[in-house]
Amino acid sequence: MKKIVLSTIAALAVSATALSAAQQFYVDEKGQVFTTSGPDRIALESKESSVFSKAKGLDFSGVHYFGYTNARPETTSPTYGNSGGFELRRNYVQVKGFFNDKDYWRVTMDATKELTDDSAEVTDEGYADVFVKYAYLYLDGVLPYTGVEFGIAHRPWIDYEEHNSWHYRSFNKVVIEEKATETESGVDLVNSSDFGINFKTKTDFFSSEIGVFNGEGYHADKTAANQENDEKLSIEWRLTGHLIGSGKKLGKNDRTKTSYANISTFGLMSHNHKDDTTEIGGVGEYDRTFYGIHAVYNQPMFLLAAQYITAEDKARDTAVTSGKEYDVFSINGEIRPIKDWTIIGRYDDYQIDKVAAGTGTTTVSADGNKIIAGLAYKYNKYVTFIGSAKFIDEEDKLGEDTGNSKDVYMLTTEVKW
């Protein structure tokens, strides 16, 4: 109780300080607070306080995705059952400390609470404590037209796609990042940040990101962290030609007011990618590679984008460990018929083939496709509301449902400040 009282007093004191510039407050002998003077009321003295930092300036921001989800598997699954409820899909709170106009240190904290598996006795699945998503130093102009991030930094591809092609991370990840969960299904080839260094180049006609990372991503499992017993790293890249629009404005374009057309190639070569004994064959380790091509065209009325990706998990000991081969295609678009309203569509198709250990025989372990439809309304520059549905169909080598086929319906609120 004492802690609650003290916290309340502290909160009131902060509020009084914040409002004191516009309002004088008074208190009587009973501790009641008034906005007008009177008998037995004493004026509260307020002193302005500041946030101190050695940085030249501080930039605070946040991105939050809150919504309701209902997921319904098409068949009875030993892994996923019917589920529904509210989710906090992302909760980014970010600060940048600027040393000058262009160089800064960034920290982004995140917390997530999504639907859990209701068909098994799992109590913590889908829940994450507050964790660090990004923590890096950015130095501008270390090379001509090039800046560098190092720390827990952006990987070259996903951030580009989310800011130029697929703008709806709030209810579905990009195709290359998705994995099998209660509400998604996909190839799970890479995530958005990792420990490493990323060189970012921007010119009018060309932009790129080239980086070296640990390879497992910022939330790697303890059993899948190659840095624990191996010095091999991951080399990753994106190369983009800007046919319409300038690469110097990459990620900053208002797609409802400008036109741009980009063609990109991207890829990854991750050596000793996982030390996970259950990931692809039961035992052993593997190297992961993928290569992709992507194109996007946008004008104020609509956006259209498409990509193709081929990937391989090559077993390091083919006699005892299976490998995998991936073939992925995705197309997405949006139409903006009237101000503040957007119609969203996307189609994904992927196939995952298992390469059997010892024999090299290839069989289909997953053949899936996904249709996504949505409608977004921009309430104001901070808030967007989205209704969406996705229909996932995935079969195994025998043409039977893998357990990942499902229909998912979502209502989403995006908040950005």
Protein model, in words:
The structure is a single chain. The chain is mostly beta strands. The chain is 6% helix and 52% strand. It has helices spanning 2-19, 158-164, and strands spanning 26-27, 33-34, 42-43, 57-73, 83-98, 104-113, 127-143, 146-154, 193-202, 206-213, 234-244, 260-274, 286-299, 302-315, 323-335, 341-355, 362-378, 383-395, 406-416. The strands form 2 sheets. A 16-stranded antiparallel β-barrel has the order 4-5-6-7-8-9-10-11-12-13-14-15-16-17-18-19. It has a 3-stranded antiparallel sheet with strand order 2-1-3, with no helix packed on it. A hairpin with a 6-residue loop joins strand 16 (341-355) and strand 17. The longest helix has 18 residues, at 2-19.
